[in-house]
């Protein structure tokens, strides 16, 4: 499914289920549900989540900084000649890599930073950093689209937010799981339990096609109905 559909379905359904189950829907729960609904596609650099977190303007800034750094390496002779020239040329070449590859490199470096330096602030940063590193190395709809990915994300939320109530980690975990269920409607489906080759797929649609758009719209409409039901019940309770 497209990112827009994942965002609406994952966020709408998870928050509605929370409200109908009697949990408080806090701003933190809403924010985590939004992230969770898109997070499985972090393994796709051009996905809605990654492209919004790392927009093209930021990529251009990174490219500019890499070119400036290349000039600094060359003219200050940080490395003895001719290695200063070699390093500068490598940095300039890297600055012109495609946006998709650039985003992967940035995510990888953020993951290293969290794993290496973030652990001293909170142990969960090490886990988050490792997950980011892994996401840059696996193919799309790989590890992030599995039961293991869902469990890791939910456990990470539970460990960091459980002191603030259950609504946050439940919202994030449900939104993540709903992303996987939505992708199971496609022709390609998902492999929820690798290394087992079994696929969960219902073959109702193909992303980006006219039929796929119709299926997405039906799912969004059903989500809207559920949201209205949840809102009416909430008004009734107050």
Shape: globular
Which assembly state applies to the chains in this document?
Answer: single chain
Strand coverage percent: under 5%
| Total helical elements | 10
Main sheet summary: none
Kindly report the average pLDDT value: 91
- List unreliable stretches of 5+ residues: none
> What series of H and E elements makes up the topology?
HHHHHHHHHH
Distance between the termini: 36 Å
Structural classification? mainly alpha
Total beta strands: 0
Report what the structure shows.
Helices cover 68% and strands 0% of the residues. The chain has 238 residues and is mainly alpha-helical. Helix 1 (3-20) packs antiparallel against helix 2 (27-38) and helix 1 (3-20) packs across helix 9. The longest helix is centred in the last third of the chain and has 28 residues, at 210-237. The protein is globular and about 75 Å long. The model has no long low-confidence stretch (mean pLDDT 91).
């Amino acid at each position: 499914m497209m990112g827009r559909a994942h965002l609406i379905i994952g966020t709408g359904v998870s928050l509605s289920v929370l409200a109908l189950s009697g949990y408080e829907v806090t701003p933190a729960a809403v924010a985590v549900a939004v992230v969770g609904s898109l997070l499985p596609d972090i393994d796709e650099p051009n996905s809605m989540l990654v492209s919004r977190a790392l927009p093209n303007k930021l990529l251009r800034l990174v490219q500019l900084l890499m070119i400036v750094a290349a000039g600094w390496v060359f003219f200050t002779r940080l490395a003895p000649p001719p290695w200063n020239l070699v390093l500068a040329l490598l940095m300039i070449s890297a600055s012109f890599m495609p946006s998709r590859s650039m985003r992967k490199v940035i995510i990888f470096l953020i993951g290293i930073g969290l794993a290496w330096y973030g652990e001293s602030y909170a142990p969960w940063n090490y886990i988050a950093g490792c997950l980011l590193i892994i996401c840059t190395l696996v193919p799309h709809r790989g590890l992030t689209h599995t039961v293991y990915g869902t469990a890791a994300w939910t456990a990470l939320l539970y460990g960091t937010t459980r002191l603030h109530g259950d609504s946050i980690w439940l919202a994030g975990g449900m939104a993540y799981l709903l992303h996987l269920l939505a992708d199971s409607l496609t022709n390609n489906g998902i492999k929820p339990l690798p290394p087992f080759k079994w696929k969960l797929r219902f073959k109702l649609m193909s992303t980006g096609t006219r039929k796929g758009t119709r299926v997405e719209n039906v799912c969004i409409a059903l989500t809207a109905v559920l949201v209205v039901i949840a809102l009416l019940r909430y008004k009734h309770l107050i």
